[in-house]
Amino acid sequence: MKNILWAVLFLMGLNSFAQSNTNLADHYRAFYNEMRLQGDVNGIINALTHLNVLSPSKERKDTLAYVYMNNNQHLQALNTIGIEKKTDDSDLAVQVKAVSLKALNQPKRAIEHFELLFTRTPSAYLAYELADLKIQVGDNEGATTNIDYGIANATDEMKYAFYERQQPYEVALKAAFYHLQGLVVYNKDKNNIDTAIASIDEALKIEPNFNLASLSKQALVARKEKTAEGEQN
């Protein structure tokens, strides 16, 4: 009799716990929707975290990581979904890993995720990210492949933002590719400065106020003049 009583109490406890979890989940879903309406990022993160505990979901975890990424909390984003390359990851998860690893100065690891995204859905924007990262790790041949793709596929409407100045600015994506092309030409052959400058001139022809390209050209011209002076001496 005592065993039956304990069993009944145990089942009642389980039922009560299940109802409590359901009520909490409903509460945090409503809380999440309200935080979205208010644009409260910390509230959204709080709601998604609780929902993931109460009712684990891969899709919701990916969303939480994406919110962290958009809030420049890249370490938290990666702690949420990891950094490993997984072929069954959603596009959203791969994007979070790629962008956050890039932001945390992990170009080699970022490249493999950008490559996966590019394999799934090729685009000029992804090609630019790959070219830029490959230049950083010294893969000039790989960068050239991405640059060629980008120049061929970037449209006049596509823009890319730069932040090296206090005031961010945008330039035509094709101009950004020509700038990278100039850097790659120089990286491959330090004596081929004229060809490198010619590529950057193409960028400046499209975007005369492209500050980063202007700085690169100034550096190359100064290098050329210094080399010429050395040869004369």
What would the keywords be for this entry?
single chain, 233 residues, mainly alpha, two-stranded antiparallel sheet, 11 helices, 76% helix, elongated
What share of the residues does DSSP label as strand, in percent?
A: under 5%
Q: Assembly type of the shown chains?
A: single chain
Count of helix runs: 11
Specify the overall morphology.
elongated
Radius of gyration from the alpha-carbon trace, in angstroms: 26 Å
Which range best describes the helical content: under 10%, 10-25%, 25-40%, 40-55%, 55-70% or over 70%?
over 70%
The spatial strand order of the largest sheet comes to 1-2
Number of strands: 2
For the termini, the CA-CA separation is: 107 Å
Which residue ranges are poorly predicted, with pLDDT under 50 across at least 5 consecutive positions? 5-19
Question: Describe the biggest sheet?
Answer: 2 strands, antiparallel
* SS class: mainly alpha
Q: Roughly what is the average pLDDT, rounded to an integer?
A: 88
Give the SSE order as H and E letters. HHHHHHHHEEHHH
Signal peptide: 1-20
Keywords: Signal
InterPro entries: TPR-like_helical_dom_sf
Organism: Flagellimonas meridianipacifica
